[in-house]
Design brief:
The complex is a heterodimer of chains A (500) and B (503).
Chain A (H helix, E strand, L loop, with lengths): L2 H10 L5 H27 L7 H21 L4 E3 L4 E3 L1 H20 L6 H20 L3 H19 L6 H32 L4 H9 L5 H19 L7 H8 L2 H23 L20 H20 L5 H18 L6 H32 L4 H4 L2 H4 L1 H15 L5 H15 L3 H26 L14 H19 L2 H10 L5
Antiparallel strand pairs in A: 1-2
Helix pairs in contact in A: 2-3, 2-5, 3-4, 3-5, 4-5, 4-11, 4-14, 4-21, 5-6, 5-11, 6-7, 6-11, 7-8, 7-9, 7-10, 9-11, 10-11, 10-13, 11-13, 11-14, 12-13, 12-19, 13-14, 13-19, 14-17, 14-18, 14-20, 14-21, 17-19, 17-20, 18-19, 18-20
Chain B lengths: L4 H17 L6 H25 L14 E9 L4 E7 L4 H17 L7 H20 L3 H10 L1 H11 L4 H29 L6 H6 L1 H5 L4 E2 L2 E2 H16 L8 H8 L2 H26 L1 H27 L4 H21 L3 H32 L15 H15 L5 H16 L1 H25 L16 H19 L2 H19 L2
Antiparallel strand pairs in B: 1-2, 3-4
Helix pairs in contact in B: 1-2, 1-4, 2-3, 2-4, 3-4, 3-12, 3-15, 3-19, 4-5, 4-6, 4-12, 5-7, 6-7, 7-10, 7-11, 10-12, 11-12, 11-14, 12-14, 12-15, 13-14, 13-18, 14-15, 14-17, 14-18, 15-16, 15-17, 15-19, 15-20, 16-18, 16-19, 17-18, 17-19
The chains are: A mainly alpha (500), B mainly alpha (503).
């Protein structure tokens, strides 16, 4: 194939990355809008103009989401010489990422330097989109770096706060190590198979390449690289510090988007041939080495350690950081089944997790703005001061525990149901007992809000209207999907309907 | 109407809870009467069901035997249905729940702290309780089962005694640990049983689950899942050694909530066993029946011994519940018609008797502000009416002939003796212990020299009598003529025994 032919083919593939193209365009528009808004402010003292970048970003994300929605029903295909997959799974993740970033764009309107913040968020989202479609380890590494570098800057976005700077540095040091591990693992696989194409690696290994020890090492290195993104034990150490130190809207972003992107990459890595039917053939599975068992063990440790470490945390953000580690463990359980249904349950859980986790983090942000602090002390007596907020927080926490009749329950119901269906009773039991442990620390917040008195509450600001609206919306969705979740079943089903 | 009566019963209290949250905070009496009005609706409907229920039907595993059935698709993707109906096992429980909930609204009249929240949560709790007893779809059942936990947590944690926060979270953690095991069991049944959550369809597949070829961890599927469910239900009963949450929760909870806990929530454990464990796992039930009977006897004796050692009146009543729920376990495990009917009747009777006892403790606590058994003395002379009602309750709890507790205990013993002679003999010793701790308590509190501190103890008032007298009349009436409740349940219990023993 000569250059012109290749270019023509690549140009033909452009339609497959429409959501990504929209994001890239929006990023540029946002920077332009910021410039205009800055001029507007300077000329007329017009504060409404400051909202312009945010408006552009939300519109762009909505367009990207619409494009992703359109891709959900399209026939799956490979783009750019098998670098990227455009299938319903990728479309689902693009939809999820656009929605989650749009919520953050709305929640972050109060932060300074709107234009830069939004551009960084959009670039990270672009990276996440590419990650979800990666079919090649090189593509995955590049996309992962895009997400990671944007994340480092985002973590340190509040320059006046030393905690934020510390978070950025820690994130970067740890992230670089993890990227190195991923690259090193990829080089092993390349050495074993002579290709970086994920499907090619699988085929080559399927023909009996490498002994189990070599494969275990390669798998561990790659898993460490991917695992750090989803805060998997034992590469989770950065998570509490970064979540705690970063500005809360950014933490909120970290807790769902990049984590889901990591899960997407894990799916692509473990099961390059998703259309293979159940049980999906897993990469690296040869002889006596089962990568799925490895994932199951890591999942059990991740959820248990996350939950145990969350007990006794005084800072609510830190508590939720550990909770997000535990949830990464829950999400991983869906992958050990190696079935499209298991995958669909993971996607189902991700949607539910988006609503409830965003709700909880945004509420922490709201309380932080009202009281100036984010510890349990600031939540004391919230039930009396802001019954609406305390009610919403209770709904989110109950949902995170996984109790009916709210969405978290059906998430766990669907996910653990598949685990049980796959015959992993031990893993399912560990997972449900973990929910009991999580009740204890989530309800330390509930206890503070409703049972304890605050003495004198120092309130320095009213509840911002945007937060009130977002929290109310997320709370309503969390409640609604708890009793009527057929639409989510349908969405998760559509997401695995057309796979590569 | 027939089709919607159970839905109305379940959700009218929820509507009430919603209405109450919109009432003005300062209008205390308006809030109380609104709660009473919304709690009256399920009671009226329960009485109507009691009147119109066809006593010839059996139910249990036979859809045709269920009455007031409603069955609609809820989540088609997972074959979850909105499936409700009642049979002889559930009607007495629904009746008990609706009655105690209504009376407990009046027993809560003295609450002044955050009235709106209290009554809204109370009504939410009632929705959960009634829903649990009428659900025939496993997920619906589970949702209602879990919905009860949240209001209970808040009711104990906000309106409870000094150690309320500890008691509330302990109750929550214990029961949640039980119910998540149950959830694993439910999901395992769903995927093994051809993707259905209908209890009746699962019962029809009892043989599939009992297949020796089907294993979990190398053990028989039906047995493992039976144990998972059993632990979940046993925590609720509560069965020794899972009972330690009960004394804490009962002592710290406000009076009305103790009544609901002991009167209704404990029954959910044994109700769950009868509704779910026995008919879905008849083989495993037979295998484990002796073990359950042993645990029942341990409950009877251990609970009674613990009750004897208590100095706190409320704790004594709490441990008496542990003891009396042992009779239910024993009667059920006998797998004889008398034993099963006795167990079902004991559930109803214990619900009424223990409710009276907790209400009585509440009455005296409101006046004396303590519950120390040794801190009273001779108050029988000061408050004759109160003492009279109290004697009725305590003697009924003791199993005095002519009162309702006697009937069910005798039936349990009759049924159990056919199966386990030694165990029944040991269990009968529990009656002596019960008489021991109750009479000793009566002596110290009501009889003997008057403690001068309580020479002017006010007599029980009209509102309190209103909560006690209806239950007292039921206790007395069923002691003499138990047929009105027995004929509700006897067909169903007989069918249940037949289902298990005929497997």
């Amino acid at each position: 194939m000569d250059f012109t032919q290749a270019m023509a083919r690549a140009a033909g593939d452009m339609g497959g990355i429409l959501p990504e193209l929209i994001l890239a365009g929006t990023m540029l528009l946002v920077l332009l809008a910021d410039l205009l808004a800055g001029r507007g402010r300077a000329l007329a003292g017009d504060h409404a103009a400051g909202r312009l970048p945010g408006l552009v970003a939300v519109l762009g994300l909505a367009a990207s989401a619409a494009a992703a929605w359109g891709q959900l029903g399209q026939e799956p295909r490979l783009l750019f010489f098998d670098m990227l997959a455009a299938d319903s799974l990728a479309a689902f993740f693009k939809l999820l990422f656009a929605a989650s970033t749009a919520l953050i764009a709305l929640a972050a309107l109060r932060l300074r330097h709107q234009g830069e913040l939004l551009a960084l968020l959009l670039a990270a989202t672009l990276g996440m989109d590419l990650l979800a479609g990666s079919r090649n380890l090189l593509m995955a590494v590049v996309a992962l770096e895009l997400v990671s570098i944007m994340s480092y800057v985002l973590a340190g976005f509040d320059r006046r706060d030393t905690r934020s700077g510390e978070a950025a540095l820690k994130y970067m040091v740890f992230g670089s190590m993890a990227s190195g591990a991923l690259l090193f693992g990829a080089s092993w696989l390349f050495g074993l198979t002579g290709t970086l194409d994920l499907a090619g690696i699988q085929t080559a290994l399927g023909h009996g390449g490498g002994d189990s020890l070599t494969l275990l090492l390669a798998a561990l290195l790659v898993l460490a690289g991917i695992g750090y993104k989803i805060a998997m034990v034992p590469v989770h150490f950065w998570c509490p510090d970064v979540y705690d130190g970063a500005p809360t809207p950014v933490t909120t972003f970290f807790s769902v988007g990049p984590k889901a992107a990591g899960i997407a990459l894990l799916v692509r890595f473990l099961f390059p041939a998703l259309a293979g039917g159940a049980p999906l053939p897993a990469t690296l599975a040869t002889g006596d080495f089962s990568p799925l068992l490895l994932v199951a063990i890591l999942a059990a440790f991740t959820m248990t350690l996350g939950n145990l470490a969350a007990i006794g945390q005084e800072r609510v953000k830190r508590l939720l950081a550990y909770s997000s580690i535990a949830h990464a463990g829950y999400l991983m359980t869906g992958l050990v089944l190696a079935t499209p249904d298991g995958l669909s349950a993971v996607l189902f859980y991700l949607v539910v997790y988006l609503f409830m986790n965003y709700g909880a983090f945004l509420l922490v942000d709201a309380v932080g703005q009202i009281t100036g602090g984010e510890s349990l002390a600031q939540f004391r007596g919230l039930g009396r001061r802001h019954p609406g907020l305390a009610f919403a927080m209770t709904v989110f926490l109950v949902s995170l525990v996984g109790l009916p009749p709210v969405a978290g329950f059906i998430g766990k119901f669907v996910l653990f149901g598949q685990v049980i269906r796959g015959g992993w009773y031990g893993l399912a039991t560990v997972a449900v007992l973990n929910s009991v442990v999580s009740l204890y620390y989530y309800f330390s917040v509930v206890k503070a809000m409703w049972f304890e008195d605050d003495g004198e509450a120092a309130e320095r600001a009213p509840l911002p209207g945007m937060h009130a609206g977002l929290i109310a919306g997320l709370c309503a969705l969390t409640l609604l999907f708890g009793v009527w979740w057929q639409p989510l079943v349908d969405l998760a089903g559509a997401s695995i309907a057309r796979l590569i | 109407m027939e089709q919607w009566v159970l839905t109305l019963m379940t959700f009218v209290p929820l509507l009430g809870a919603a209405v109450i949250t919109f009432l003005p905070k300062a209008q205390h009496n308006l809030i109380r009467w609104t709660a009473a009005a919304f709690a009256a609706v399920p009671l009226a409907l329960a009485l109507w069901i009691w009147q119109t229920y066809n006593r010839a039907a059996a139910g249990v595993d036979d859809l045709a035997g269920f009455q007031y059935v409603v069955r609609l698709d809820w989540i088609p993707g997972y074959h979850i249905q909105y499936f409700m109906g009642v049979d002889g096992l559930s009607v007495p429980m629904v009746l008990l729940t609706a009655l105690l909930s209504f009376l407990c609204i009046f027993a809560s009249w003295g609450i002044t702290k955050q009235l709106k929240g209290y009554f809204a949560l109370f009504l939410l709790l009632e929705t959960g309780m009634i829903g649990t007893f009428v659900s025939l779809d496993f997920i619906l059942f589970y949702v209602f089962w879990e919905i009860m936990l949240l209001p209970m947590y808040f009711l104990i944690g906000i309106w409870g005694g000094p150690r309320r926060e500890y008691a509330a979270i302990k109750f929550f953690l214990y029961t949640l640990a039980g119910s998540v095991l149950m959830l694993v069991g439910i999901l395992a049944l769903y995927f093994q049983g051809g993707h259905t959550f209908s209890l009746l369809e699962l019962m029809a597949q009892a043989r599939t689950f009992a297949d020796p070829g089907l294993t979990i961890f190398g053990l028989n599927f039906a047995r493992v899942i039976f144990v998972a469910f059993f632990i979940g239900f046993a925590i609720k009963v509560p069965m020794w050694p899972f009972h330690t949450w009960l004394p804490d929760a009962h002592v710290e909870a406000p009076t009305a909530i103790s009544v609901i806990l002991a009167g209704v929530l404990l029954k959910m454990g044994t109700y769950g066993m009868m509704r779910i464990s026995l008919p879905i796992f008849p083989g495993a039930t037979q295998d484990f029946a002796f073990g359950i009977a042993v645990f029942g006897v341990i409950n009877i004796l251990y609970g009674a011994y613990c009750a004897m050692a208590q100095s706190d009146l409320k704790k004594l009543v709490a441990y008496s519940s542990v003891s009396h729920m042992g009779y239910v376990l024993l009667g059920m495990a006998a797998l004889t018609p008398q034993g099963m009917t006795g167990a079902a009747l004991q559930m109803f009777n214990h619900g009424t008797i223990t409710a009276m006892m907790f209400l009585l403790v509440g009455v005296i606590y409101d006046r004396a502000h303590h519950r120390d058994i040794d801190g009273f003395g001779g108050i029988g002379a000061v408050t004759p009416v109160y003492t009279g009602v109290a004697m009725l309750a305590f003697f009924a709890s003791m199993g005095l002939p002519g009162l309702s507790g006697f009937v069910s205990e005798v039936m349990v013993f009759l049924g159990a003796f056919q199966a386990y002679k030694v165990l029944t003999f040991l269990a009968a010793l529990g009656i002596i212990l019960t008489a021991g701790y109750l009479l000793w308590m009566i002596k110290r509190v009501f009889l003997g020299a008057l403690n001068e501190k309580y020479a002017a103890l006010p007599e029980i008032n009209g509102r309190e009598l209103f909560t006690l007298v209806p239950i007292g009349l039921i206790v007395l009436f069923l002691g003499i003529y138990p047929l009105p409740v027995l004929d509700l349940m006897s067909n169903s219990t007989a069918r249940l025994v037949q289902l298990v023993t005929g497997f």
